[in-house]
Each structure stands twice: as C-alpha cells, then as structure tokens.
Amino acid sequence: MITLASLMALPLAARADYPEKPITIVVPFSAGGPTDKVARDLAESLRKTLNATLVIENVGGAGGTLGATKVAKAAPDGYTVLLHHIGMATSPALYRNLQYKTLDDFEYLGLINEVPMTLVAKPTMAAANYGELAKWIAANKEKVNLANAGLGSASHLCGLLFQSTIKIDMTTVPYKGTGPAMTDLIGGQVDIMCDQTTNTSSQIEGGKIKAYAVTSTKRLGSPALAKLPTLDELGLKGFNVAIWHGLYAPKGTPKPVLDKLNAGLKKALQDPDLHKRQEALGAVIVQDGRVNPAEHKKFVTDEIAKWGVVIKAAGQYAD
Questions:
Q1: Would 18-114+243-314 and 116-214 be classified into the same CATH topology?
Q2: Kind and range of the H or E run holding 225
Q3: Radius of gyration of the chain from Cα atoms?
Q4: β-strand pairing of 106-121 with 210-214
Q5: H or E segment to which residue 209 belongs
Q6: 315 burial class (0-12, 13-18, 19+ CB within 10 angstroms)?
Q7: Which of 159, 212, 310, 313 is most deeply packed, by most CB within 10 A?
Q8: Which residues, including other chains, have CB under 8 Å from residue 40's CB and lie 6 or more apart?
Q9: Is the C-alpha dihedral spanning 163, 166, 171, 175 positive or negative?
Q10: What is the tens place of the pLDDT at every residue in 87-105?
C-alpha cells in the first residue's frame, strides 16, 4: 500500500507532475559550435514534447569531459541532462584520468542524430578530384599539413582514421577549435582537413574550400554536398565516420523520469521542423532502435571498442 509518507519520500522528479521546473541541457562545448547547434535545435522540439522550459548551459573544456563530469555528479532528479557527441566513446581512450565512467555513471536516453564528415582542402589545392588528391598525399606524406580542431575533436578523430586507412602519416596541426582551423584552411596555411558537415557545408557552398568526399556510406542529399562521392565508393572500403549525438542523465535518475525523458525525445525526433533544421546542416536524425536506452548504450559500448583501437595505435593521449 502506498502511503502519503512513502510518496513524500520519493524524489521530487519521480512524481507524475515532472517536470515542474526548467530542465538544463549541459553542452560540454562552447556556444555556437556544432554540438551547441544540435542542442538548441533539439530544445526547440523538446519544449513541446515535454511541456517544459529547456535551458542550455555551455560547460566547455578538456575535450568535453568537464561538462560530462558535471552531469555525472549532478543530482539524479531529471533536471540536469547531458547532450554529448562521439566524445562519450573516445574519451575513455584519450583521457587517462577521467572523473567519470562512461558506461557506469550515466543513464542512456537515446541517440539524436548522425553527422557525416567531409574531406576538404585549401582553395588553392591543385587536385581536381580525390584520385589526384590521394596521389599528391602519397607523394608528399609528412609534408602534408592535416588540420584538426584539437585533441578529441571530430576532425582529429576523422584524421586519425583517414591516416590509418591509407597507411600514410601526415603532419597534424591541432587548433583550439574549428573556427581557427577553418580560417587557416581557407587561407592556405594548412592543406587538408576532415570535418563534419555542420562546419563545412557553408564553406563548400561558398567556394571557400575544396571538397573531395563524404565519410558516410551513402551520398548525402543536402544541396552543398549532393555531388560528393563517398570515400567507400572511391576505394576506402568500409570507411564510415559519423559524429553522433546522444542524450544522458545522471546515474540513479528515477525510472519514471527516464521514461518521460525518453518518450519526449522520441516525439521530438519526429518533429518535421527539427528534421529540416538538421538536414540543412547535412545531419541525419536517428530513426532506428538506437533511440531506445538499451540500444543507445550498446552502440556507445561498440564505439568505445572501435575508437579505442584507433586512438591507442596513434598513441595520442591527454592527461
């Protein structure tokens, strides 16, 4: 028998009237970046499906681990959640002193989207297609400057896999963010970069950089990228890199709250406006079983294993 005393003992968030106050979505990167954009787009739809106020809090630093740590240690009441990208799977290999356990300290709420990458180059690059670019890279090897947005960034990870796949080591040039990396690529200070469509689409469409391929297994439908072949069809069989985003709550969040959050997320992912906003950036909203907590967690578990091999082989770690 449920008594008044037992009801009062339940966490506030476990009551049927959840949510009663604003929900904070922690984004572990600075405002204006691609993950921040995903969070703000999703929040527009979640406000309707959860009938709640959503607040975005940017907690950048240490490759996204500071924001993730904050959520892992937050009260498990459903009012603080994390929106993170592929860094959830790569941080265990990249960082030796993580303040949380990726698979143990979070409740998995569902995957949101996948963002393919593009292989791009400075505007003065002479190569007219990927075949010519590959020959140029092979001829120059270590002289080739491969830019990335910093350790653990999407461009860093894609660059690692690209070098591993073609079995050529290049000179990697890390930057403190995508902005300065893209600025130097446009200016010709670096040669090539592999970065997500959310960062490259407008630059490609504006003719500011050259584009050679996408990293998805299928060609993309967005106007700026539709003509680009996949690296898989160009001969790098199985090459597939997508920067995915997922939603997480602190471990121990009551199941009724998790169920409401997951149900709200699933409904939000059906919002046509969200699809339009994300497709304009080359992102694809997830519509398969990974929107369910168990399959989301299994997916991240598999990604941890996949990227752990690549990162350890490269020997690039952070303290």
A1: yes
A2: none
A3: 20
A4: antiparallel
A5: none
A6: exposed
A7: 159
A8: 56
A9: negative
A10: 999 999 999 889 999 999 9
Return the structure tokens found at 176: 């403190």
Cis previous bond, 19, omega within 30: yes
- How are the residues of the chain apportioned to helix, strand and coil, as percentages rounded to the nearest 5? 45, 20, 35
pLDDT per position as a tens digit, 128-187? 999 999 999 999 999 999 999 888 888 999 999 999 999 999 999 999 888 899 999 999
Q: What does the pLDDT read at residue 291?
A: 98
CA distance 69 to 279: 30
Topology (CATH) of 116-214: D-Maltodextrin-Binding Protein; domain 2 (3.40.190)
Q: How far apart are CA 276 and CA 281, in angstroms?
A: 9
List phi, psi (to 5°) of 270: -95, -5
The whole-angstrom separation of Cα 179 and Cα 306 is 28
Cα–Cα dist 173/215, whole Å = 21
